[in-house]
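User: Here's a protein and a ligand (adenosine-5'-triphosphate). What would the complex look like?
Assistant: Let me lay out the input and then the predicted complex.
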Amino acid sequence: MFNKVCSLSQLKEENMKADLEASLPAGQEEFAIRCRDVCRSYGKLKVLSNLNLTVPQGHIYGLLGPSGCGKTTLLKCIVGTLKISRGRITVLGKPPAFPGHDVPGKMVGYMPQELALYNEFTISDTLTFFGRIHGLTSKETQARMDFLVDFLDLPQKQSLVRNLSGGQRRRVSLGAALLQNPELLILDEPTVGVDPVLRAKIWQHLVEIVKTGKVSVIITTHYIEEARQANVVGLMRNGHLLAEGPPDAVMKQHSATTLEHAFLQLCETSDQIDSKRGSSPQSGPLENSQSFESGRDESRPILGIGPGAAEEVPKYSADWKVRARHMLPKWRNIAALMIKTLVRMKRMPGSLCFQFLLPVIQISLICLCIGGDPKGIQVAVVNNETSPSAYSQSLLSFLDNASVHQVPLSHTDAFDGIYNGEYWGVIGFGKNFTSYLTKRMIQRQVSREVVDGGSVHVWLDLTSKMQKPSHGSLSFQCQLCRTAFVENKLGGMSYLVALPIKFEEPIYGSLNTDFTTFVTPGAVLSITFYLAVGLTALSFVLERKEGLLDRCWVAGVSSLETMLAHLFSQLFVISVQIILLLLFILLVFKMPNEGSLVLVIILIVLQGVTGISFGLVISAAIDDEQSANQAALGIFYPNLIISGIIWPVECIPYPLRYISLALPQTYASEALRCIMYRGWGLSRMMVWRGFAVTLGWNTFFLILATVILKLRT
Ligand SMILES: Nc1ncnc2c1ncn2[C@@H]1O[C@H](COP(=O)(O)OP(=O)(O)OP(=O)(O)O)[C@@H](O)[C@H]1O
């Protein structure tokens, strides 16, 4: 039975081959696309398995198959956005992405399954953008645009893509693929959501354009019957072709009246043979050895229209000049991408304002809310001395009463208050405080009772964040230290020693230097860095998800050009952010800047560029925006803390300190502090080290992003 099915299949194959050869125009030996033994997997999932497919020049090839059989994957391999694991693909004579070949480029028009359109663009912007990339003059673009708007029945050219219906967007996407009159059209389900009249019109147009013999089309569709208008159909299932031939021949072979029936029969036969082979002890898995058709090698389609298996593998070569030109970025593409970004920014003024103002808001909040002196701290005072001339009264009057609000209370109320969380501390004086303190000052040796009675007693709620003085901030405890004398104990005896410390004019900084001054340079760098990381990662991940990166790539835009264009347009945003940041920190918050403003600006810009490069790494490695956000957020806090931005690196325990020194912002923050507060220049190691580390990270991130992108295609 199995042999019978196979020999029948063989006979039909031969008949169909004769039919196809008869259908080909005389002298038709050119092929637009040729795939030989193509394999492609996603991880362990084998999607394409020894697939052979041939699209003759000047033909429409309808690629049909159930959902998930690998059609889109195959088209992506053909245009070169996905690398094949094995086999060979030639498109218009050379492998995709071969140096000097215009595939990807203007020779191919690609309409991906996703809409892959910029929502903020108008129809006109969309077609102009692709026209620029393909090097069309504005007159040519305009002429094609007028034709396409009319032909595809598109709304007004100035309509925004985001306001179009699903079907209208799909037609705009098709228009973008048809724009430059490419030699090869690769259309992934262009007729989904399109009404039958327009669908017929699109097919009619495809039939028209292939008549010249110069244009070839490969099209996938779920409407199997519409593919009867194709010159050749390929029926695909489980990653390989079940049949390939003219639609009539395929139907004739299976005595079917429709393509759909023919396809169903093919699937049934395939399943039958699969189960036979599965039950046969000699048979292996279908993917690995032979296909169901007459036990032949799977690499042979039912109807081969290309050369046989013995064909020679052509050698392709390009000289070094062509290779070098291929590697070099094209300014035309970079300019087109930059104009695209600027148009999008213009169309999203809210988002642009957010990008400009967010750093200023962040740094203002840091300057206003961090490092200031505490105000209105409630402290209970239990003073058992009643005389107005008592020392306790004088001491209490020395406290900064703007910061500490003294609440005179009885001993019981004060302690109840502190237990109830109403007061941050209790200051207590004994009833003989003045006399005991006098004794301690004039007598060389005093009893423990005198020491105790002549001391200020302080009970603190040490859960308070103000327990430790920090970088000159006037905490409650610090005030007490300033007011009190220093007590020394020597040989069991207590002495009161007043330490005569005089703070001279500092070498660098001022006596009023506070915590905010310490934090600000690092904060400026980290704000610039993280905004750049977030915006870059998000914009690239979204563009990739929406198929925009792939579409631009097929239009001939390289990854390097995409990265450079983003870098240049983001530099504009960073420049405005930095101008606003510096205006605020220098003029509004009066941070000192003793050094060169140019160096300050360059260092901040370079940190922004490092952020962009790191964003590129994230977007190259991660596919969805949620994971990209998590990655950006995940590194934000640890990096902020161990870069010595909030607290000096010298306080970090040793193993972590080594990590800290290797981070992009540790030396850079130090360098910025040295420039701004010490007035140092590039001749100082602490300054050039910050620049060198930043440049090093820049280079590393850019190379890493490029490598990841290369590995992932
Ligand atoms: N990026 C990816 N990672 C992992 N698996 C993928 C990826 N893209 C596609 N696949 C899987 O590969 C198989 C083929 O997908 P493909 O999109 O090529 O099918 P298709 O024939 O175009 O389907 P449809 O007609 O529904 O668009 C599917 O099982 C799909 O789940």
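Summary: The longest strand covers residues 31-42.
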